[in-house]
Amino acid sequence: MVEQQLFDVHADLDVTRAELELIGVHVEQAQHALAEAKVRVALAETPLAQREHAAARRRLHDLEAQYAATQEELERLLVTQDALLAKLVV
Asked: What's the whole-model pTM score?
């Protein structure tokens, strides 16, 4: 039973690590988009540029929150894995 749980947690860890990597790429892209939007606001000073900047800022904030939540899930899975390994050894 412990072996199966450990196998399941390991599979979940693989998925979560892949998600974290993908979200990290999206965060980098959103940071770049926000930087570009800041430049457009500074140069154009139009309502459209300001809306695009606000949207880029919200997108980055949402992605950063998603990254943090996924990181917390990864940490929780690692704790679970450690607990299962301890049971297996004992």
From this structure: 0.88
